[in-house]
Design a protein that fits this description.
- The protein has 543 residues and is α/β, with parallel strands linked by helices.
- The protein folds into three domains: 179 residues, Alpha-D-Glucose-1,6-Bisphosphate, Chain A, domain 3 (3-Layer(aba) Sandwich); 223 residues, Alpha-D-Glucose-1,6-Bisphosphate, subunit A, domain 3 (Alpha-D-Glucose-1,6-Bisphosphate, Chain A, domain 3, 3-Layer(aba) Sandwich); 134 residues, 2-Layer Sandwich (TATA-Binding Protein), CATH 3.30.310.50.
- It has 19 helices and 27 strands.
- It has a seven-stranded mixed beta sheet, sandwiched between helices. A seven-stranded antiparallel beta sheet has the order 20-21-24-25-26-19-27. A five-stranded mixed beta sheet has the order 11-10-12-13-14.
- Strand 3, helix 3 and strand 4 form a beta-alpha-beta unit.
- Helix 2 packs across helix 3 and helix 10 runs parallel beside helix 11.
- Bound molecules: 1-O-phosphono-alpha-D-glucopyranose and zinc ion (ZN).
- The site of zinc ion has 8 residues, from loops.
Length: 543
């Protein structure tokens, strides 16, 4: 069989970040760059001979070329079969679904998530384990170690596969199944949610706008919302995936999904607005003239989970990333279930879900999901919202306001300072770390520091420890400021500042978030010296 073993040398910059390896397309286009990383993945795994690998991506620029290389490397390295999404497409949650359903050994997902795509933009690759979730740190560390010692890679050069044609083909001794990227995922959604009730909701005149942002969820949303649930044609907008996402930034937040935000304002706006990101794992939920923060969305969904058939038995527990607001903790307390606080990144939820400790998980960064797969899942969140709207027949705003009245409101916002110099950002974090002891005894006007630390997490399932996961400054009234640097960027550094304050009094639930948090936002700047050190008077993105 024409398997070539090609000599290569390490690239120093192949350390995976919060979610796989992300670099500019031009970096991935260097000879051997992708090959080295893929061979490092395979070299760090054991026992995959003859087994199944799942492969697909968000369709961004370089997706097809990467799929071709990875198929040939999988054949040369001894996989028995690859399940690849037609045209190289699989959303991140669909990839997780397919890995689990077909008991694959693992999967490779090609995506840089919400980062822009195109010849001069970003590309990414990550490995998912057999449980369907992102590789845990010990695996990503092993991949990185291999990448630093690599001397050769294996690639099959004896033929090609047509990834546009559904069905079975062969690449040397390896079987390649080109699968419908939507079918398995749509089937799973139908098991979890009350499709007849949602169909009845649409039939009653309920209107929705789903913005796929020219990214991967277009075909999924067309098939599920319009074809299976009977939403009128045109409910899904920007539904054709494009390699450069139409030149946009496929990140469903108030800044990048501004068209959707505009369409959702005004008296005759649709009842529900939603958007998803490049690879389909994020979601944003809007009501008419109303924005639901991701942290509130997690809490509301958890409180109403029993309305969906898949969760009628209740939740085992909830998990949220540390910077996510504590709204979900209040729901967990009321339900009498546990709430786990993990570091940022979906990979930390996998063990909790595998062990049956958490059913719903969420992050403030527009990520929500459950144990149906091991990734966050944008359309899943949208469908659960639809399910609860179908059951309760209220407006989104009413549902959230009632939630606040019951549990209190956690005012919450994240301020991002993008494109800072790496040294400048590292210096700011180092100095913050150095000032923790001093901070612990401080008082700032009405705010008395109760806890100041660098968040460390011990996984309750396997005991692994993750250090330096973000600086927390917690005040005696429970308000918090959290600082951390992004681990997903491809250029410079991004400082994220997360601010939260709890308001129990329903009479005070009507304030603008930035106004309600103004005192803490000022304090966040004072404590870290952001303006002084970076020269920035305002954040780049506020969510
Ligand atoms: C960001 C989000 C984080 C999310 C990750 C992948 O990571 O903050 O919650 O898990 O993207 O979608 P960061 O850039 O902050 O490291
Ligand atoms: Zn994503």
């Amino acid at each position: 069989m024409p398997i070539l073993v090609r000599p290569t040398a390490p690239f120093a910059d192949q350390k995976p970040g919060t979610s796989g390896l992300r670099k500019k397309v031009t970096v991935f286009q260097q000879p051997n760059y992708l090959e080295n990383f893929v061979q490092s993945i395979f070299d760090s795994l054991e026992g995959f001979g003859g087994q199944t690998l799942v492969l697909g991506g968000d369709g961004r620029f370089f997706n097809r070329e990467a799929v071709d290389i990875i198929l040939r490397m999988a054949a040369a390295n001894g996989f028995g079969r690859v399940l690849v999404g037609q045209r190289g497409i699989l959303s991140t949650p669909a990839a997780s679904c397919v890995i689990r359903k077909y008991r694959a050994f693992g999967g490779i997902v090609l995506s840089a998530s919400h980062n822009p795509g195109g010849p001069h933009e970003d590309f990414g690759i990550k490995y998912n384990i057999g449980a369907g979730g992102p590789a845990p740190e010990k695996v990503t560390e092993a991949i990185y170690a291999q990448s630093q010692a690599i001397g050769e890679y294996r690639i099959f050069e004896g033929g090609a596969v047509d990834i546009d044609r559904l069905g079975s083909q062969r690449l040397g001794e390896m079987a390649v199944e080109v699968i419908d990227p939507v079918a398995d995922y749509a089937g799973l959604m139908e098991e979890l949610f009350d499709f007849p009730a949602i169909r009845a909701l649409f039939a009653s005149g309920f209107r929705m706008r789903y913005d796929a942002m020219h990214a991967v969820t277009g075909p999924y949303a067309h098939a599920i919302l319009e074809d299976r649930l009977g939403a009128p044609a045109g409910t899904v907008v920007n539904g054709t995936p494009l390699p450069d996402f139409g030149g946009g930034h496929p990140d469903p937040n108030l800044v990048h999904a501004r068209d959707l935000v505009a369409a959702m304002s005004g008296a005759d706006a649709p009842d529900l607005g939603a958007a998803s990101d490049g690879d389909g794992d994020r979601n944003m939920i809007l009501g008419r003239n109303f924005y639901v923060t991701p942290s509130d969305s997690l809490a509301v969904l958890a409180a109403n989970a029993r309305l969906a058939p898949g969760y009628a038995g209740g939740l085992a527990g909830i998990a949220r990333s540390m910077p996510t607001s504590q709204a979900a903790d209040r729901v967990a307390a009321a339900l009498g279930i546990r709430c786990f606080e993990t570091p940022t990144g979906w990979k930390f939820f996998g063990n909790l879900m595998d062990a049956g400790l958490a059913t719903f998980c969420g992050e403030e960064s527009f990520g929500t999901g459950s144990n149906h797969v091991r990734e966050k899942d944008g359309l899943w969140a949208v469908l659960l919202w639809l399910n609860l709207l179908a059951a309760r027949r209220q407006q989104v705003e009413q549902i959230v306001r009632q939630h606040w009245a019951t549990y209190g409101r956690n005012y919450y916002s994240r301020h991002d300072y993008e494109a800072l110099g790496t040294a400048e950002a590292d210096g700011l974090m180092a100095d913050l770390r150095g000032s923790l002891t001093e901070l612990r005894s401080k008082r700032f006007g009405e705010y008395v520091v109760r806890l100041a630390d660098d968040f460390a997490y011990t996984d309750p399932v396997d005991g692994s420890v993750s250090m330096k996961q973000g600086i927390r400054v917690v005040f005696s009234d429970g308000s918090r400021i959290v600082y951390r640097l992004s681990g997903t960027g491809t250029e410079g550094a991004t400082l994220r500042v997360y601010v939260e304050r709890f308001e129990p009094d329903p009479a005070k639930h009507d304030q603008d978030t930035q106004v309600a948090l103004a005192g803490l936002i000022r304090l966040a700047d004072e404590i870290a010296g952001i303006a002084l050190r970076t020269g920035r008077s305002a954040p780049t993105v506020i969510t």
